[in-house]
Prior knowledge:
The chain has 119 residues and is mainly α. It has one domain (5-118). The chain contains 5 helices and 2 strands, in the order αββαααα. The protein has helices at residues 5-21, 54-62, 69-79, 90-95, 101-118, and strands at residues 34-35, 51-52. A two-stranded antiparallel sheet has the order 1-2. It starts with a helix and ends with a helix.
Amino acid sequence: xxxxxxxxxxxxxxxxxxxxLIAKPENWCQGTxxxxxxxxxxxxxxxxxERFCMLGAIQRITGEVIIRDExxxxxxxxxxxxxxxxxxxxxxxxxDPVTTHADVLAAFDLAIELVREEA
Length: 119
C-alpha cells in the first residue's frame, strides 16, 4: 500500500463510502457489479444502479472502471487471500453462494481497520 498519507486517507474514505453504499442488504448483490430496480445488470456508475457487489460499490464511489490496488488489496487481506489471489479474490468472495451480506460488511470493516492501522 502507498506510504502517501493523502492516498491512505483517500483509500480509507473510499472503502468507508463503499461500505455505506451496501450497508443495507437490499443494496447489495451477487453475480454482477450492479443491478437496477428491475434486477437488470447495469454499470455501477449509472444513476439507475441501486444494488452493488463489493467492487461495484467501489466503482460507484470512485467513478473508475479499474479498481486500484490500494483499494482492492485491503479487502483481499480482510478475506484472507493473497493480493490478486485468483478465483477466491474479492469477486469470488462476494459471489460465493455461502457469503452473506454480514460477511461482506465484516470484510469491509476489517479492510477499513487494516488501512487505519497503516495510516
